[in-house]
């Protein structure tokens, strides 16, 4: 699959609400090997160019990119994930464990993956779809900035990631 654009929700720390964020300008790619006979032998990688994170709010994006607060993108321009184990959870559900690297720190995470469908698209491509979810604690990767939001409350450490993936079969 190489994929070049995407959508993922993110939380606005000022209002404690979920905010849509997109990666623009073809700044992430992934490769997926799916073993149709034994999906537990499948594997995948993902590389995100951190500066492509775009929540649609310029001030928030600059805050996320900064050295002092969240991703320190000048020093750590990429976020990567490499799968290490795929386990069948029953039906179309899988648990994919892998190494997530953010800000120079690599930690294992487990993704809940649901196969959604296979289809032949109007452009002649064979596609497969997945819904992926996991919860990570941002502090595990050194993202510790915190302040009281104007709306009250505090920032939480746990971040829930929900991602829809559409993978296109490469020819050859």
From TrEMBL:
It comes from the Bacteria. It comes from Pseudonocardia xinjiangensis. Residues 12-168 form the Lipid/polyisoprenoid-binding YceI-like domain. Pfam families: YceI. SMART domains: YceI (SM00867). PANTHER family: PROTEIN YCEI. Transmembrane segments: none annotated. Belongs to the UPF0312 family. Signal peptide: none annotated. InterPro entries: Lipid/polyisoprenoid-bd_YceI (IPR007372), TTHA0802/YceI-like_sf (IPR036761). This is YceI family protein. The lineage of its organism: Bacteria, Bacillati, Actinomycetota, Actinomycetes, Pseudonocardiales.
């Amino acid at each position: 699959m190489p994929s070049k654009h995407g959508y993922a929700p993110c939380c606005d720390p000022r209002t404690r609400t979920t905010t849509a964020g997109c990666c623009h300008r073809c700044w992430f790619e992934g490769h997926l090997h799916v073993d149709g006979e034994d999906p537990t032998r499948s594997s995948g990688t993902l590389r995100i160019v951190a500066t492509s994170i775009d929540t649609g709010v310029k001030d928030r994006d600059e805050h996320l990119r900064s050295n002092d607060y969240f991703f320190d993108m000048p020093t750590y321009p990429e976020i990567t994930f490499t799968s290490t184990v795929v386990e069948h959870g029953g039906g179309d559900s899988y648990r994919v464990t892998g190494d997530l690297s953010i800000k120079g720190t690599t930690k294992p995470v487990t993704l809940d993956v649901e196969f959604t469908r296979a289809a032949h698209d109007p452009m002649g491509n064979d596609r497969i779809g997945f819904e992926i979810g996991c919860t990570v604690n941002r502090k595990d990767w050194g993202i510790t900035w915190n302040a009281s939001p104007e709306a009250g409350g505090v920032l939480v450490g746990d971040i829930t990631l929900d991602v829809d993936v559409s993978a296109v079969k490469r020819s050859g």
